[in-house]
Fold each of these.
Amino acid sequence: MDSYGISSLLIIVLPMLSFILLALAGKSFAPKLSGLIGTCSILVTTVLAFYVAGGYFFEFGNVNGTYIRHIVFQFDWLHFTENLSIDLGIVLDPISVIMLVVITFISAMVHLYSLNYMHGEEYFERYYSYLSLFSFSMLGLVVSVNIFQMYMFWELVGASSFLLIGFYFTKPSAIAAAKKAFIVTRFADLGFLIGILMLSSGAQSLDFFTIIERLTTPGSSYLASFQGSFIGLSALSWTLLLVFIGGAGKSAMFPLHIWLPDAMEGPTPVSALIHAATMVVAGVFLVARLFPIFSISAPDALLIIGYIGAFTALFAAIIACTQTDIKRVLAYSTISQIAYMMFALGVAGWGADKAEGFTASMFHLFTHAFFKALLFLGAGAVIHAVGSNEMKQMGGLRKSLPITHITFLIACLAISSIPPFAGFFSKEAILSSAMKANPLIYFVGLFTGGLTAFYMFRLYFRIFWFKKPEADAHNHEKHTWAMNISLILLALGSLSVGFIPFGHFVSADGNSLELPIHLGSIILPVTIAILGIAAAYFYFAKESNKSEVAVAKFETVYGWAYRKFFIDEVYLFVTKRIIFNLIGRPIAWVDRTIVNGTINSTAWISVKASEIIKPIQSGRVQTYAIFFLGGALVLAAILILNFA
Amino acid sequence: MEQLPISHILVVSSALFFIGVYGFLARRNLITILMSIELILNSANINFIAFNKYLYPDKLDGVFFTMFIITIAAAEVSLGLAIIINLYRRFNTIDIEDTKTMKY
């Protein structure tokens, strides 16, 4: 194993060691020390990840112009049969290396930021141990060589997300949100598990690359085992859609998105790390990992993913326009942006002319991580200063939070895809690939882009403008050096990462690809984005009742969107009214009367029987002696008769 | 001198045994019951001695067993009397009919 191999192994191991150390011994450290241990370990990991990424992209990854898969190490962990074995290992290929960079960098920023943000919090060391656990599991997820290894890490990130959402465990709403996130994603993972089992039983392997190879060779016997169809989709498409359900649960696609807005109950840096930049894109990553199967053998499943993505993007953007809790606006914005990545995968295909969508999706994943983490961390700084999540409490904060103001503006421009910020390049790539493949999805994406600009700048103006800044506003940022550093670094990232020629590094088949930027195709989206910003400026730049007037005009639609189109209520209706009443209650009745009744009646019979035979034990020694004597005589008689 | 046949001795010991059993089952006084147990044990002793003497005159196993039984009987009587004294203290009687609490 060369130095790159050792580094990539350390990337996984270091956060795990830091988790074990902090979880076991964190209580005996001073809180500051445990924070420093967590932060230092992730900083080292980040450096290693950059080292490995540099090595992969510029030294050993590229063979004759194609990026190849490089398996650093792999060992047989559970060996059941020849075909069925669960391996653990580390694979380096363009998407996993990119994910390593994103995860470690964002995680390092969040660790650093939390040093200030969580300062003085009770259970500080526990917070850092959870963060390390999350980093470990997420890094393990992206380098998985085996679909089952991925599933294990998939559940681990789910568990650490649960722990971190419920970090303020004295708050009932946080507990409820943690449970909701856990139950919804577990429900989705059931689909994932069934999908894994079907996929592996068809392909006779659990290894990612064996599965991909076997299921993409036309006319192979493995493909033939997926015979049959159901409602017009082939068995393989259904299998892949089941796998996608797992991804949709993690990535909060409609209708499994309901947990993500509630997950904002967790500490804000956690929302930035887990519920914006890394964990929620695991679903996109999963589809990207299996992309060859989707695009070659089941394009119809990919199309469905595209439509689900497009619908979710629009749907979440509409809700985001009406929310007043700033973190919830960001949560819906996250759902919408992840949906962009999903439909970019959905419109992509196999082959040089259609592969653009895949690269665009990964590119957006990459840039989105920077500016969305920045938005969340900026929102965290605002919440830290104001002490509330509600927009109504804010306004005119540009004087008291200058650094946050500038960095937040950069992030808003980036997410609204204004050139030359990072989001512009990636969203442009997504839209141009959608335009070629599917006009309907293209227009949805275009319109959603305008909405995105509107709700982001609504947020921006509402927080930093709207009211006149207080004359004697004191600077909130003097003592939060760590927060400032991470905000500035992420802002630099949001400014610059768009210029990376992403297509040269990441593509579905490893070949270099040019992401074209035509002047003709960028005019329309940028104009729409500017219109969105202008609308937000008109309504929210100065304190006025213009927005209330507009709301009053569209009261019904606004109310629906404000109540999130009643999806939560539908879920409650289905679970409480239908499932509990029609399924839960009969089962409870069977349990109480038939199952419990059987058990209770055996107990009752035993009691009655013992009541009957109880008088035999009279307590009279002489009665016992008679029985004893009788027994002895009978035995004697038997013996004598036998021997006689 | 003509030797007594073994059957005579066995008849005596059987009679003694059943007298003891009868006493154990029929008497109500605990001390009498204890005495009946002594009769049963002694009938066994007689059997041991008789078989030893008539069947294996050159061995002493039966005699040893008898010695054991006498020792154990003495210990048993002392325990039995102690129990009876405790019973008397508790129930003020040594009638077995009145000591029926030893049940469920």
Amino acid sequence: MTTQSIRWFWYASPQTFFPLAGKIARVCTLLAIIFSISGLYVGLFVAPTDATQGEAYRIIFIHVPAAWMSMFLYVVMASWAAVGLAMNTRLSAMMARALAPTGALFTFIALWTGSLWGKPTWGTWWVWDARLTSELILLFLYFGFIALQASIDERRRADRAGAVLAIVGVVNVPIIYYSVQWWNTLHQGASVSFTRAPSMAKTMFLGMILMALAFWMYSIAVAMTRVRCMIAEEER
Amino acid sequence: MLWRDLLLAVRRRSDVATALLFFVIVASLFPLGIGAEPERLRSIAPGVIWVAALLSSMLSLARLFAADYADGTLEQMLLGAAPLGVIVAAKSLAHWLVSGLPLVLIAPLIALQYDVAAPLYGVLALSLLLGTPILSLIGAIGAALTLGLRGGGVLISLLVLPLYVPVLILGAGAVAMADAGLSPEGQLLLLGALLIVAAAFAPWATAAALRISSE
């Protein structure tokens, strides 16, 4: 029991985490490449053409995993920030900081590919749909976090202020999501519905899962690399 | 505490008046930009009034803690015996009384300019009455986080406005519902629920943020 806890905290120190982060980053980069090649292959060549949407639907192999990651990474970021605030560990705050740009990137990709997909299928780049709007607000929340971190020079204060903001944001995300949904459903009939055909071909699902794994690995690899840079910069 | 902040606000009347004037001017700009057809104005009125309320409430946020921070009063509050959460709650309440309540009172006048039907005034005022305190409470978190930072004013808007979205949607939604002949009760109840949640948690988060900002 005690040895367990000692080993956990062993890696909580930036100095000891530095080489481990390097190893994780290398492994995850490799896995990300493998998963994305196989995921794209399954998605673009193996998966059958959708009956109603034609070839344009293939964007979901990027879009859906990116949307998953955008929301998931915000929660991960907020929980690292909370750990950093509660336990006062530098590394947790670094993790939160390292995840923010990746999360914002995935949010942006989800919005971007979504509008690329929306043009041929819905006939419009943008609708004020519940999901689109809440994803957009999520992007603003990421930007707020990054901007707050960037404008505070003192590292410790920046980390802790960012943590408070991230936690407040994570409490707010479900509220925002539901308020947007109510707003949308109350005001206009659902001209566009997000419900896809219930039966999804197995290969489509496989392609999506592979891409999701690839994005996971990419996020971990990038976050680890960023943490390494931060350690190298701040802990000399 | 509440009394002190109110007294300070009364002594510096121009601050209060500026925020209020800002609200009126923003609301008056829309007809100039969009065109003055009564039909169109009526349909955008709830949204415009609410957005103007959001912006004007945000405008005065930066001053919420700045003066106390500058002259060291805030440090005394941090060290004092009274729990910080309660002090923050009192300050948020004072901020609302100074910046939110006048908006509630003047909103029917704006609504009149927008040719909104008279029975809607009550709903509009009620939604603002429930909604603007939430703005003050959430805004206090942003004000505390950006205390003493360069470019704090712009940063506050980036932090706080996304969090204001539910209030905006529910508040403007309530008026639009009533306009459509439906009961706005659901939206108003949700606003009330948000207010209770914000009143319970926001002062606490603000207190934490103040401790971080002033160490």
